[in-house]
Amino acid sequence: IPSGVVAHKSQLVVQLRRVLLDEGSIFAKDKNVYGVKYTGSKGTMKKTPPREIVCNLKKSAALRMLKRKDEPFKTLGLDDLFPGKPVFNKQREKKQPFRSCAVIASAGSLVDSQLGNFIDSHDVVVRFNHAPTEGFEGDVGAKTSVRIVNSQVISKPEFDFLNNPIYDNITMVAWDPCNYTSSLIQWYERPDFDLFTNYWTRRQKRPNDDFYILDPRSAWPIWNFIQGNTPARLRRNPPSSGFLGLILMLPMCNHVDMIEYVPSIRQTKRCHYYDTLEDNGCTFGAWHPLAAEKLLALSMSSSDDNEIFGRGILRIQGYPSLNC
Ligand code: C5P
Asked: In testing the pocket of ligand 1, which one of 282, 288, 294, 308 has its CB within 8 Å of the most ligand atoms?
C-alpha cells in the first residue's frame, strides 16, 4: 500500500473523529428540531467484526416505502397514485439478489477517479438528487438504475424536476424528513419541503414508473442504529441520502460498493464532482450525522486500505451473501 494512502487514511480517520467530538458540543446547543428522543445507549470503542454489524443492522432497521393502504392517503383518495408493487419487484419475484450494486456519493473527489467503467459494471447503480452523468462518464459512469431524491430537489423550481430527463425510466425514491415521533398524517400536513405536489403530478403523467416515496418514519431507526454504534453524541438530524442508499440496497445485493463515500486520496474541499462549490461540510457533515455514518460504514467493510483510501471503493457485503 503506497505511503500516501497510509498517511491519507490516518489523517482522514482523525478528521472524522474530530468532527464527531465537536458534534458533542453541538448537541448541547442544538434545538432538536425533529424532537429526537433516543433512549438507547451510545456505541462503545470495542471493535466489532463487519458481519456482526451488518447483521445487527438487518435486525434493527429497514427502509419502507409508502403503500396504498397508508393513511391519510387512502382516505384522501390518493392511494392509487402510489405504485401497486413493492420496490425492486422484478428482482424480488426472481428471488435472486443483484450480484453487485454501486452507490455513488456525489463527492468532488470523484473528479479524475476514472471509475466510470467500474461503476457501470455493477448490476445496479444508485445516484442522488440531480447528479448528472452526461459529460462525466469517465469518472462516474453512464448507467443509472436508481435515484434517491430529496424533497428540495423535487419542489424547488430551479431543479425543474418535472421536465429533467435524468429522472425518466429508472427507479426513484423521494424523501423528506419527519419528526422522530410523528405520524404520517402529521408529516403530510407539514413536510419540510412540499414533495407531494410534484409527486402526484409525475405519477399522473407516468403511472408506470417505479417512483416511490420513502416512509419518513423508517429513517429514524437508522439514526438510532448509527447512534447505538457511535461512541459520541450524534447530530439529531436524519441520516444522509448516501447512507439511506446503502440501507436501501443491503437487502437486495450480494455486495454494495460505496463509491467516494469515504473520501479517497483525491479528497478535496469541493462539494460535488459536478459543480465548483467548495465546502468541507458536504464531506464531513454540516447537517446530517455524516462523520458518524462514514466511520460506521468503514467498520462494516472488509475492503483493504488501497481499495478504500486509494481507489475510493468501500465494499460492504449485503444481507443475502452474509446469510444473517
Ligand atoms: O449533496 P447530495 O445530498 O446530493 O449528495 C448525495 C450524497 O452523497 C450525500 O447524502 C452524502 O451521503 C454523499 N456525499 C458525500 N460527500 C460529498 C458529497 C456527497 O459523502 N462531498
From this structure: 282
Look up residue 170 and give its three cell numbers: 429508472
What does the pLDDT look like over 171-227, one tens digit per residue? 999 999 999 999 999 999 999 999 999 999 999 999 999 999 999 999 999 999 999
> What is the number of structural domains in the chain?
1
Looking at the DSSP bridge assignments, the partners of residue 150 are 175
Beta bridge partners of 173: 148, 212
Q: Is 282 in the pocket of ligand 1 (CB under 6 A)?
A: yes
User: CATH number of the domain that 18 lies in?
Assistant: 3.90.1480.20
Domain that holds residue 188: 3-322
Strands 253-259, 313-317: pairing is antiparallel
ipTM, two decimals, is 0.99
Burial of residue 280, with CB atoms counted within 10 A of its CB: 0-12 exposed, 13-18 middle, 19 or more buried: middle
Name beta bridge partners: 317.
255
Q: State which ligand 1 atom lies nearest to the alpha carbon of 293.
A: 12
Cβ–ligand 1 distance for 240 under 6 Å, the answer yes
